[in-house]
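HUMAN: Can I see a protein plus its fold?

ASSISTANT:
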Amino acid sequence: MFRSRIQNIVIRLIEKQNATADDVRDLRNALEEGGFITQDEAEALIRVERMVPSTCEAWGEFFVETLTAHLVWERRPTGVLRADDVAWLIHQLEQPREAAAGNVAPLLVSLVREAEHVDERLLALALAANGAGSAAPGAASLAARAA
């Protein structure tokens, strides 16, 4: 059976319902050992975002940075979000939430900004998550990208 480098840390975070700066450091250290993250590890990070209600600022930065790197820069072709990756991400984000998942909107903004080409489904999701037409952070830049 496959065990990811971060499996034990993810289980700990979900059990204690909290992600601290020390936990983020542990995740970074575990992931640095093997380079790029796997799809299973990306899913585990999204699961933490959906299931852990109390997270620190370092978690949000790590979550956005790590998933943006995985989806935009570590996959081929570089700089392009593939249609199957967008479908996978949407499926992951539509799973039931036990927490607010407050870092999903910043993740979507980051993906739209970093990718050379943005799938319409992802752009629509990013606009919806960031309150298109509102003063929500990132809404103006998303609207401009959509135009």
